[in-house]
Amino acid sequence: MTERALLLRVTLVVAAGTVPLPAPRSLAAQDTTAGKRVYVKWCAGCHGDAGAGDGAAAASMLPRPRNFTSGLYKIRTTASGQLPTDADLERAIDEGLPGSAMPGWKGRLSQAERRDVRAYIKTFSSFFADTGQHVVPLKFSSPPGGRTSVAALKVGRQFYDSIGCRKCHGDQGRGDGPSAPTLKDDADFPIFAADLHQSWRFRGGGSVEDIYRRLRTGLDGTPMPSFADLIDQKFLTDEELWRLAQYVRSLSPAPPEVRDVVHAPQVPGTVPVSPDDSAWTRVARSWFPLEGQVIHKSRWFAPAVAGVWVQALHDGKTLALRVSWDDRTESPDTAWLKFEQRILETVAGDDSGPGPKAEPWPDQLAVQFPRHLPQGMERPYFLMGATTDPVYQWRWTSRPRRAFAGLARGIERFDTLPGAPAGEATYEHGEWRLVLTRALATPDTANEVQLEAGRAIPMAFFAWDGSSGEHGSRMAVSTWYFLALDRPTPPGVFISPVLAMLVTLGLGLVVVRRAQRRGATRSGG
Amino acid sequence: MRKLGAVAATGMVLALGLAAWTRQPAPPAQGGGTISGKVKFTGAKPAMPKIDMTEEPKCKAKYQGVPTDETVVVNANGTLANVFVYVKSGLPASYTAPAPAGPVTLDQDGCRYHPHVLGIQVGQTLAIKNSDGILHNIKAKAKANRPFNISQPAVMTSTKTFDKPEVMVALECNVHGWMHAWLGVLPHPFFGVSGGDGSFAIKGLPPGTYTIEAWHEKYGTQTASVTVAGSETKTADFSFAAK
User: Fold this and answer.
1) Biggest distance spanned by C-alpha atoms of chain A
2) Cβ within 8 Å, pair A234-B2
3) A182 interaction partners in chain B (CB closer than 8 Å)
4) What would the pLDDT profile of A217-250 be if each residue is shown by its tens digit?
5) CA dist A112 → A84, A105, A137 (Å)
6) Mutate which of A235, A240, A334 to disrupt the B interface (most B C-beta within 10 Å)?
7) Chain-chain contact of B2 with A229 (C-beta, under 8 angstroms)
8) Strand order in the sheet with B104-109
9) Are A465 and A304 a contacting pair, CB within 8 Å?
10) Cα(A424)–Cα(A398) distance, rounded to whole angstroms?
11) For A278-302, how does the pLDDT look when each residue is reduced to its tens digit (9 = 90+)?
12) Which tens digit of pLDDT belongs to each residue from B186-200?
């Protein structure tokens, strides 16, 4: 703080002490009684009866539900450590907090209910009733132009390095920096540095404006500090902070739309087997979100892998499936063992006995198919099949680095088959890129799915991050999706429309000619 | 240019602090009484974990050997350092102490806080200095006061104040998980921290009977009742045992 700012603050404090200020609006003016009813019904299950973030469901969650008693909020428009504005709380209630268990309540509760519950949660912290607290939103500037220009992003990247973002968020922003495995929040729960490649999961929103605001305000209660002082101290300009926000935003693609089908175009020649073959840059990728496995014990509410990007190609004989996903660690990684232990202690899971101990588990990925292509919509149980109706799976592990195939009969039982897909994987800056290849047709037609072009092939995914304590039933799962091997487009598909156009044009010309001729005959007679 | 600005700002704050310090009057309340003492330590001196500063070569270079955690610092004479000793109660209700104009400085040097334990008055300026010139964030996990968490990626000084008494405010750096400091915020100047010889002194006390509390981050608190009259010096020793 500069001397002048200090003086101003002192003046303000003195003024606040001597000049009668208008009485703060009484909390009773908002209906906290009605708010309590809403709270007890909809919020207490996670946030706890007394607002301490310790509801019945809280113990299995990471991040934990907000503890309202300290008046500490991550997503605000106010300076570091200050209370949020009513509008800040309204946004969190209405829109929810992406990437956490907090849903948006706009469509579920009436406006009055949302306003009342907002008033009620403020009663959990005495800070809201403290008239000495000045809740003033910061004044935010507008973004400068040139959002995606190379020069703008270069400036942003320069500050990404110089102000040390990489310490926690990593060189490429996937939350894999050297300090990441030591991070904890104010309640001593382990906390992940955000993966900056998934802006749609940012708690406060993923727009450039949202990111800029988080840089100014920090995320209270977390290790993420405010960078506002750096502008006051002339370490960087406001515009440079905007460039940093733009750079961070540029790391994520547009929020992916989830589609049911991933298409595998047919390529001439042979399919690429390396994950870094340039052929993959020309293939569209589809995002498949994953969720924690919460059906069977031990349940897992804190999946580390939020989803997988999938690309597919075939050459008429072989299928190549490229799966890439963000993972902070190339597991097993001893630097993360303590963090893993803290996660396991925090996310108690369920009543399946004493908490598991951290072990150097590998990273794993599974791709699941039915054994046979179904005739109708009937598919085996999505969660690794059943004893009587097994599923065919490809599995890959980071250590030992290998791919294999087998039949899963539920989560507990996996029988390896002799035939295996080929697997090639690269780990770089918090990302796995894996290509699995297998012949479309195999001899073991009883157990191994036969991949036919033109058919909807059910497919599902499972992922484990060993360094987050994921192993066995503690995993991330998807529902069934489909893989479609495209047939090469017959030349007729391209020629027919051209022919049709030519014929139409020709006929049209004939009609016009005739009409003109008739007109000429009439005027001549 | 920026660096120059940061250096200039640092200099200004330091100069201001120095000016304020030299202007500072002697202890308040015409001399007053003194409570002094030593903090003894009994039992086996716990081995403190080594701090691996490989990630920060700039900090690592500032040490001859391998630096260790400062949670428990037992002095050569068997006393305990970093114990915050302060007047918990006993001051007359009418007692008021204006915050000194000079700041209290917390320095980040060699990826450790200096001092590790410190006291400050309500309203007094805390100057947080980064001498390392690498990224530190300073998080104050205050509970009675509002907390803060700010970033210092270069040599620079930031200032903060605290509105309410709070013993103790935990300060930490999340970039370097081993960095911890403890700040006692009091509405009066009657506090001290046991140093390299385990001694402390609280000076300028008005006559009265006081509850003195000794606080240690690992070993908890102890209290003593001490009566001082006039300008006499009373002794209050504390003893913490290894756990």
Assistant:
1) 107
2) yes
3) 174, 177
4) 999 999 999 999 999 999 999 999 999 999 999 9
5) 20, 12, 24
6) A235
7) no
8) B112-114, B104-109, B126-130, B156-160
9) yes
10) 10
11) 999 999 999 999 999 999 988 999 9
12) 999 999 999 999 999
Q: Can you say how many angstroms the Cα of residue A191 is from the centroid of all Cα atoms in its chain?
A: 16
Q: Could you give the residue ranges of the DSSP H alpha helices within A251-390?
A: 337-346
DSSP string, A393-408: EEEEEETTEEEEEEEE
Helix (H) or strand (E) holding A160, with range, is helix A150-162
DSSP string for residues in A235-285: SS-HHHHHHHHHHHHHTS-SPPPP-SEEEE-B-SS----STT-GGGGGS--
Cβ of B149 within 8 Å of Cβ of A80? The answer is yes
- Chain B residue closest to A14 (CA)? B123
Q: Of the candidates A6, A133, A179, which has its C-beta nearest B175's C-beta?
A: A179
| Bond prior to A298 in cis (omega within 30° of 0) | yes
Contacts of A227 in chain B (CB under 8 A): 151
Q: Which of A69, A134, A171, A179 should be substituted to probe chain B, the one whose Cβ sees the most B Cβ atoms within 10 Å?
A: A179
Q: Would you give the end-to-end CA distance of chain A in angstroms?
A: 98
Contact call for A164 and B175, based on CB within 8 A: yes
Inter-chain Cβ pairs, chain A and chain B, closer than 8 A: 99
- Residue A175: burial class (beta carbons within 10 Å; 0-12, 13-18, 19+): buried
Q: Return d(Cα A25, Cα A29) in angstroms, integer.
A: 7
**ipTM of this complex prediction, to 2 decimal places:** 0.84
Which of B150, B172, B180 to mutate to test binding with chain A, by most A CBs within 10 Å of its CB?
A: B150
Residues of B in contact with A226 (CB under 8 A): 148-151
Look up tokens 């942003």; give the residue: A156
User: Taking CB atoms and an 8 Å limit, are A186 and B160 in contact across chains?
Assistant: no
Q: Are strands B233-235 and B148-152 parallel, antiparallel or unpaired?
A: unpaired
Q: How many other C-beta atoms are found inside a 10 Å radius of the C-beta of residue A246?
A: 22
CA distance A176 to B66: 26
Q: Which tokens is B151 given?
A: 């970033």
Residue recorded with tokens 């300028």: B204
